[in-house]
């Protein structure tokens, strides 16, 4: 059964490589030689770290572990990331290395810069001959592409075991290495009579969805960029055409007004639908500073008919009370007949810093997180976060039962419909998750990005 589940997930998660992995660094970008996994660059053009990465990509996790022990025993390891859970994964990694050498020790520090300062921190560290940070776990494909990869600050390492699990090789694989895809999804308070059965409902007259402001979390802006890509703008057109004539009549003037804008921005024939949705969304959403408070608002029975676009995993931390319940929430995309995008997905990527003080240890740590369930366990308990390794994803599902709402300690199912995570494959296909593509985001960040900056934003006050 486990083998069958692994095979099924291997098939479905090949899509993850298209989504996150197709976020390919352009040729010659400096991510690694020629911008791909191990790359096809001439050895003479490689930095010292890239030479190590090229060698490391031919090694198993155990072989990398031995190199790491040799390199870093008794030393200090600094990591930096958007997720604080790197701090939880490092002790497990050390324990793993100690199964090979019981005398191995490693001190570590994990930093999590706030307010998007991770890019400034990595840029400053890159100016040193030997950096402080050994590796990073980082999000926001647009800035990774433009500020980190094209500048040669970060290098992509593709673990052999990860490549094998995904039916590829480091040489063939193009793109960054995703630890996981996370999703932000449309959900609403169901204590009233209102329902949402089309993604255009969220920008209808009088709607003010709770959303982490695009100036607070930049991946939200990447979501809007992606809507202008031909496939997603076509999806918005298809959803629009599923609306009633009365509903279409409300949106049509905005769509028509965006036709010339779409042309001037060089978008495809359906670009006007994307720009119309973006304009209406930016002009209506109720800006928040974090997803946690949004979740706390929506699960309270007092939040009748309110909705939000938030990280799915926030629901798991909700504690039941007289007024608060996960049963007060409906995931819009899970409704029968729902049309259009159910949310958007973005990746946490793993990189070795090009001036890494401990490149072998960094590679081994990255392989441990992406190739073992224990290494992924710091993130594995959450719904809405999907390992990019099909074998790890299968093992993780067997542990946490995300697709059955989680299991209680006595083995019974916890019945909260909103927690029944339909899984990555479902979200990409049926849930029409809009997936971040760093290369595309970087290509339109000046044009579409500048246009978005000019839009009027809603002010709740």
Q: How does this model look, in words?
A:
This protein has 461 residues and is of the alpha/beta class. It has 19 helices and 12 strands. It is globular and about 70 Å long.
The gist of it:
By secondary structure, the chain is an alpha/beta fold.
Main pleated-sheet profile: 12 strands, mixed
Total number of helices: 19
Q: What share of the residues lie within helices?
A: 40-55%
What is the tally of beta strands? 12
Oligomer status: single chain
Tell me the Rg in angstroms: 22 Å
The SS-based structural class is alpha/beta
Report the β-strand fraction as a percent range. 5-15%
- Measured between the Cα atoms of the first and last residue, the distance is 55 Å
Q: Which regions contain 5 or more consecutive residues with pLDDT less than 50?
A: 1-18, 21-41
Q: What value does the average pLDDT take?
A: 89
Basic shape: globular
Q: Secondary structure elements and their pairing?
A:
Blueprint: H1 2-21, H2 48-56, H3 61-72, E1 75-81, H4 86-100, E2 106-111, H5 118-126, E3 135-138, H6 141-149, E4 154-155, H7 160-165, E5 177-189, E6 210-212, H8 219-227, H9 230-241, H10 245-257, H11 259-264, H12 271-282, E7 286-288, H13 291-298, E8 307-311, E9 329-331, E10 343-353, H14 359-371, H15 373-380, E11 385-387, H16 390-400, H17 424-429, E12 434-435, H18 438-444, H19 447-453
Parallel strand pairs: 1-2, 1-3, 6-7, 6-8, 10-12
Antiparallel strand pairs: 3-10, 4-10, 5-8, 5-9, 5-10, 5-11
Helix pairs in contact: 1-16, 3-14, 4-15, 6-18, 9-12, 10-12, 14-15, 15-16
């Amino acid at each position: 059964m486990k083998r069958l589940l692994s095979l099924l997930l291997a098939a479905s998660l090949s899509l993850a490589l298209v989504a996150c992995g197709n976020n390919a660094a352009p040729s010659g970008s400096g991510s690694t030689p020629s911008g791909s996994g191990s790359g096809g660059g001439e050895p003479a053009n490689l930095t010292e770290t890239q030479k190590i990465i090229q060698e490391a990509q031919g090694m198993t996790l155990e072989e990398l572990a031995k190199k790491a022990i040799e390199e870093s025993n008794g030393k200090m390891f600094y990591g930096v990331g958007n997720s604080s859970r790197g701090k939880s994964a490092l002790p497990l990694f050390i324990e793993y290395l100690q199964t090979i050498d019981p005398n191995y020790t490693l001190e570590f520090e994990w930093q999590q810069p706030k307010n998007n300062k991770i890019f400034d921190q990595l840029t400053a560290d890159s100016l040193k001959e030997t950096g402080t940070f050994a590796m990073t776990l980082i999000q926001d494909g647009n800035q990774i592409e433009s500020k980190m990869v094209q500048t040669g600050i970060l290098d992509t390492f593709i673990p052999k075991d990860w490549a094998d699990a995904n039916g590829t090789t480091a040489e063939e694989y193009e793109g960054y290495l995703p630890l996981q895809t996370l999703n932000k999804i449309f959900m609403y308070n169901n204590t009233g009579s209102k329902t949402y059965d089309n993604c255009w409902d969220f920008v209808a007259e009088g709607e003010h969805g709770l959303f982490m402001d695009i100036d607070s979390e930049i991946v939200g802006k990447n979501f809007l960029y992606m809507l202008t890509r031909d496939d997603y703008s076509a999806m918005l057109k298809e959803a629009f055409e599923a609306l009633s004539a009365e509903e279409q009549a409300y949106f049509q003037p905005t769509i028509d007004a965006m036709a010339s804008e779409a042309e001037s921005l060089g978008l495809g024939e359906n670009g006007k639908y994307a720009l119309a949705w973006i304009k209406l969304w930016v002009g209506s959403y109720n800006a928040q500073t974090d997803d946690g408070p949004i979740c706390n608002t929506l699960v309270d029975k007092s939040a009748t008919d309110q909705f939000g676009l938030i990280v799915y995993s926030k629901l798991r931390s909700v504690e039941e009370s007289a007024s608060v319940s996960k049963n007060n929430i409906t995931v819009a995309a899970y409704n029968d007949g729902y049309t259009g995008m159910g949310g958007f997905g973005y990746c946490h990527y793993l990189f070795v810093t090009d001036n890494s003080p401990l490149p072998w240890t960094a590679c081994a740590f990255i392989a441990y997180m992406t190739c073992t369930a224990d290494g992924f366990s710091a993130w594995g308990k959450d719904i809405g976060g999907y390992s990019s390794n099909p074998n790890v994803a299968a093992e993780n599902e067997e542990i946490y039962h995300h697709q059955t709402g989680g299991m209680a300690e006595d083995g019974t199912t916890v019945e909260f419909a909103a927690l029944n995570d339909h899984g990555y494959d479902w979200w990409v296909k049926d849930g029409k998750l809009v997936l971040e593509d760093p290369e595309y985001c970087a290509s339109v960040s000046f044009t579409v990005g500048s246009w978005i900056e000019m839009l009027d934003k809603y002010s709740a006050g």
